[in-house]
Amino acid sequence: MNKTKCDEVSRGYTFIKILGFTVVVFLMLVNISGSVPFAGISNFGSNNVSILNKYDEAIKAYDKEIEINPQNSTAWNNKGLALDNLNKLGEAIIAYDKAIELNSHNSRSWYGKGVALGKLGKSDEAIAAFDKAIELNSLDSMAWNGKGNALIILNNYNGAIKAYDKAIKINPHNSKAWYNKGLALYHLNKLDEAIKAYDKAIKINPHNSKAWYNKGNVLDDLGKSGEAIKAYDKAIKLDPQLRSLV
Question: For the chain, does the N or the C end have fewer beta carbons within 10 angstroms?
Answer without folding.
Answer: N
